[in-house]
Amino acid sequence: MADLDTFRRETRAWLEANCPPEMRQPMTSEEDTFWGGRNAKFSSEPQRIWFERMRDKGWTVPHWPREYGGGGLDGEEAKIVRQEMAAIGARAPITSFGISMLGPALLKYGTDEQKREHLPKITAGLIRWCQGYSEPNAGSDLASLQTRAESNGDDYIINGQKIWTSYANYADWIFCLVRTDPTAKKHDGISFILFDMTSKGVTTKPILLISGRSPFCETFFDNVRVPKANVLGTVNRGWDVAKYLLQHERAMISGMGERGGSRPLGQVAADSVGSDGQGRLDDALLRAEIATFDVDEAALAAAAERMVDLAKAGQGHPAFSSAMKYYGTELNKRRHELLMSSGGIDALEWESERSHEGARPRAWLRTKANSIEGGTSEVMLGIVAKRILDLPGA
Amino acid sequence: MPLLLTEEQSMLRDSARGLISDHAPVAHLRKLRDTRDATGFSRELWATFAEMGFAGLLVPEEHGGSGLGAVEAGVVMEEIGRTLMPSPFFATAVLSVSALTRAGSAAQKSEVLPKIASGALLAALALDEGAKHRPLHTALQAVRSGNGFKLSGAKAMVVDGHVADLLIVAARSAGAPGERDGLTLFLVDPKAKGVAIERTIMVDAHNAARVTLDNVEVTADHVLGDVDGGAGVLSGVLDLGRGAVASEMVGLSEEVFGRTVAYLKERKQFGKAIGEFQALQHRAAHLYIEIEITRAAVLKALQTLDADPAGATAAVAVAKARAGATATRAVQEGVQMHGGMGMTDQFDIGFFMKRARLCEELLGDANFHAAQLAQMRGY
Ligand SMILES: Cc1cc2nc3c(=O)[nH]c(=O)nc-3n(C[C@H](O)[C@H](O)[C@H](O)COP(=O)(O)OP(=O)(O)OC[C@H]3O[C@@H](n4cnc5c(N)ncnc54)[C@H](O)[C@@H]3O)c2cc1C
Ligand SMILES: Cc1cc2nc3c(=O)[nH]c(=O)nc-3n(C[C@H](O)[C@H](O)[C@H](O)COP(=O)(O)OP(=O)(O)OC[C@H]3O[C@@H](n4cnc5c(N)ncnc54)[C@H](O)[C@@H]3O)c2cc1C
């Protein structure tokens, strides 16, 4: 305990000294997120400094082993770093599918060579990854995917189409689900494979979202040649890897609404709605809704903390991240509905510097995808019913 | 600190669960209700509780107790919630012990606490006067008289009021109802002249009473804590109590849920288990998630009560508000998914619904606590 207290003090002091003030402000636009990659661009000097300091300390991923560029921290220490970052509202130094999705799968299923090849480039933000799971006819029913990988000597030849591939047009590499045995039952003929997006035969076509932004693509594979050594895990057992990765993806998405040190929603609402003589929000029903939201949000934060602690103690249920994904995304949607309702007309401006180019309505629309991406809310409830509650026929 | 029970706390849970499920399943409550039992709980079981150290769980060791904290109290309350066991644990071992340890003089503590720990004395907190929990609206008058006070007024909902050997009465010694200053706590002998106690039979068949004081004389020795400074003591006592009731509601919710899921697997209609219908599966899954999230929020509040009692109010408000909303959902879904069976008295599920409603009112409902949180957050 004494050691942890010391660690907390040191962490607090280090963050105080190294996190630029600008990186403690809530993010207001997409530029505020740093994604890394071959073509990475920093949108500001503080963003660069913050990323590089965290990278050099191993804290882009505090709990990964040091040999891969992580911080080598244990669970309690990593929790302290998270708490202390949240306490000052520090932004994540990098947002990366490599960290939140592929990394855990590499650590569990990767060969030593694969780990040495990919993990250090993830922690250092050198390679940006995208996720090739969904296809036009394989959404919720992901295992019905049809992208083929045919054996050709030491390589596979990949043909097919993915869709909704987030940031495929910016990504350097893809982790991709392909069918390697078309004769097996649908879950049994899938492999999990990694390849470079600059490979010959890969093309992407951006799709415009209702938020007016284009964060994802259709991704086409036309005779793409990939070495067999790039399969992660066992050939035809890719579904295991895919599911394991989804657990991490869902845990990550469930936390997307977390806001660190930003102002209470009720105070943000008061900016537009006003307050009465006693300092109460001047809209009793909105106040009640926000208060109920605050209760649920605080409870979710406790549940997120407990989920990590349970997992550490070996008492977690592997499907619990689906429960959290469901609740966290529905809550985040509620939060943005309340922000829109609080902002009134001010929250509807779509273009202008004043509105940060419509940051609020665009963010609101973006959250509607939270309960779709990474598995829909209905699918999450189905997983809980089947895997945790053991209900028949689920 | 991990948001989990420690090994010792898990052992405490196991022993409480063993005792309670063996000796006080829901049938125990049913029998007390149906026989219109005058005491409303089993004194024999309370003696066993005391032997096992539960009565003195929160009593400091120097006064014959175990000196444990909010998490441990919550662990026992959760087990009580699973079988709806009527027990003096909440009023005596949690609320009263908390008030006495916080505010009691050395003499008051050494007089009362050992008796509570041994199971020999029951106590009750007489606070709420109206239909809703509004501690600062306390109006029961304390008028100075000689070196003491005369108390007059009425308390509407005193848990265990008719079996208590000692009443802890919140009174207004100064200021107007609604104000924070001017509340004083008194130790009152329920047999004193001017005290009238009417047991009230409530929907949940647990103990409650209306207590009326008519010029009841108390000396300065009966003041608990500082004159006019009772609100500070009360807020600590109530926060602990709220954490405890929230724990009871977690136990209750989980038990209703377990019974409901079992029923979904067993009951057949349209040629299959009703648990195969997705309309019910999704509602069951949603309820499960609500309960798990509430469980985390409640444990967070209990741990905060132990680590930083003065800073626990927000976490407690979250816990009690969540527990109320979750239990309300759990019992409603429970009855609904049991179909006609859920409506019968013969089936236990209705007992849970009734108790959940009462727990929701105890020490502030979900609206009360959400509003507290809003105020703390400045909107
Ligand atoms: C912003 C965004 C980013 C994304 N990024 C990626 C990415 O990077 N990589 C990637 O591979 N994919 C990505 N996706 C795709 C995402 O995983 C799929 O959209 C999702 O799995 C749902 O599939 P679908 O869109 O085909 O919907 P469908 O499966 O067609 O679902 C339509 C509706 O039917 C419901 N439904 C389906 N099956 C059932 C059932 N059994 N019971 C009850 N209801 C059911 C769904 O819940 C939904 O409401 C992204 C999606 C979005 C919106
Ligand atoms: C107060 C009261 C008075 C009544 N009076 C009469 C009367 O006078 N005469 C008479 O004949 N009957 C009467 N009934 C019976 C009533 O009609 C039945 O209780 C009702 O039809 C439900 O049947 P069940 O109780 O067997 O529940 P079940 O059919 O077992 O249902 C249990 C649960 O499963 C759900 N469920 C069942 N099938 C599906 C499905 N396919 N999809 C999704 N969910 C499903 C139900 O909605 C319910 O939540 C009365 C019931 C009550 C409570």
List keywords for this structure.
heterodimer; A: 394 residues; alpha+beta; Butyryl-Coa Dehydrogenase, subunit A, domain 1; Butyryl-CoA Dehydrogenase, subunit A, domain 2; Butyryl-CoA Dehydrogenase, subunit A, domain 3; 3 domains; 3-stranded mixed sheet; 13% strand; B: 379 residues; 4-stranded antiparallel sheet; 10 strands; globular; binds flavin-adenine dinucleotide
Structure characterization notes:
The complex is a heterodimer of chains A (394) and B (379). The model of chain A has no long low-confidence stretch (mean pLDDT 94). Chain A has 11 helices and 7 strands. Chain A has helices at 2-18, 45-57, 75-87, 97-109, 112-123, 238-254, 265-273, 284-312, 320-343, 359-367, 377-388; strands at 129-132, 148-152, 155-166, 173-179, 190-196, 202-207, 216-227. In chain A, the strands form 2 sheets. A 4-stranded antiparallel sheet of chain A has the order 2-3-7-6, with no helix packed on it. Chain B is α+β, with helices and mostly antiparallel strands. Chain B folds into 3 domains: 7-122, Butyryl-Coa Dehydrogenase, subunit A, domain 1 (Orthogonal Bundle), CATH 1.10.540; 125-228, Beta Barrel (Butyryl-CoA Dehydrogenase, subunit A, domain 2); 232-376, Butyryl-CoA Dehydrogenase, subunit A, domain 3, CATH 1.20.140. Chain B has helices spanning 7-23, 26-34, 43-51, 70-83, 89-103, 106-118, 230-266, 278-307, 313-337, 339-342, 349-361, 366-376, and strands at 123-126, 141-145, 148-158, 166-172, 183-188, 195-199, 209-218, 223-224, 268-269, 272-273. The complex binds flavin-adenine dinucleotide (2 copies).
Query: Residue-averaged pLDDT of chain B, rounded?
Result: 97
> What separation lies between the terminal Cα atoms of chain B?
31 Å
CATH superfamily assignment of the largest domain in chain B?
A: Butyryl-CoA Dehydrogenase, subunit A, domain 3
What spatial form of chain B do the alpha-carbon principal axes imply?
Answer: globular
- Portion of residues within helices of chain B: 40-55%
Briefly note the structural class of the backbone of chain B. Answer: alpha+beta
Give the class-level CATH name of the largest domain in chain B: Mainly Alpha
Major sheet: arrangement of strands of chain B: 1-4-5-8
Strand-and-helix sequence of chain B, N→C?
HHHHHHEEEEEEEEHEEHHHHH
Q: Helical region count of chain B?
A: 12
* CATH architecture title of the largest domain in chain A: Up-down Bundle
Fourth-tier CATH superfamily name of the largest domain in chain A: Butyryl-CoA Dehydrogenase, subunit A, domain 3
Low-confidence stretches of chain B: none
CATH topology of the largest domain in chain A: Butyryl-CoA Dehydrogenase, subunit A, domain 3
What best-fitting shape of chain A do the alpha-carbon axes yield?
A: globular
CATH class of the largest domain in chain A equals Mainly Alpha
